[in-house]
């Protein structure tokens, strides 16, 4: 391993945390170009995520591809998730899907569930509810304690609103409640109550609220959100 590549990465990380993007960028490029098998892909991945935070998808894409192509067991799957977000941000849905499926193929304990989740979100945005359901169910099946409950809530949302499968939606929301997740369980309870109210009062409509269904990217920045719903009287 190259000590200079490691040092440049550490400097870039510190500068990024202090908000000095331009200086962080220079240090991370130095580390990335060093060709170190450990630190260079890590630097490329971080630099790509910094570009994502600035919604600079065009700049993010090439450095994230560089990190992915390094085939590092940890940093390449992470960069693959970010690459999918960058491609989706550029309007390249097919490229985003390919990037997410490549992450899924790695079988990474954290990133593969996230990739299934993001794939479900991508399909949901493209108004392909059956495919969205398949993505969310696949995320749930991997049993990730954080991603699973989020997928359950989004699954319930799609089943109820797009596929009109009330029983399936109730089961998905109840699974999220049973998970005990600190945020998603509460949101699922709210949606279960809404379904119960709709069953009791047929003359109601939906109203978008400020409550968000958390659609995590796994990177902490640039998260996507869906509005949940509550019934209201006409």
Helices, by number, come to: 11
In round numbers, the mean pLDDT is: 88
Total strand count, please? 2
Low-confidence stretches: 203-234
How do the SSEs run, as a string of H and E?
A: HHHHHHHHHHHEE
Oligomer: single chain
- Which strand-content bin applies to the residues? 5-15%
Main sheet properties: 2 strands, antiparallel
Shape: elongated
- Widest sheet, order of strands: 1-2
Overall radius of gyration: 20 Å
Helix content: 55-70%
Structure classification:
mainly alpha
- Report the end-to-end length measured between terminal Cα atoms: 67 Å
Structure report:
The chain has 234 residues and is mainly α. Helix content is 68%, strand content 9%. A two-stranded antiparallel sheet has the order 1-2. Helix 4 packs antiparallel against helix 5, helix 7 (111-125) runs antiparallel to helix 8 and helix 7 (111-125) runs parallel beside helix 9 (147-161). The longest helix is centred in the last third of the chain and has 17 residues, at 184-200. The radius of gyration is 20 Å and the shape is elongated. Mean pLDDT is 88; it is low at 203-234.
Describe the structure concisely for a colleague.
The chain is 68% helix and 9% strand. The protein has eleven helices and two strands. It has helices spanning 3-17, 21-33, 39-53, 57-69, 75-89, 93-106, 111-125, 129-141, 147-161, 166-179, 184-200; strands at residues 204-215, 224-233.
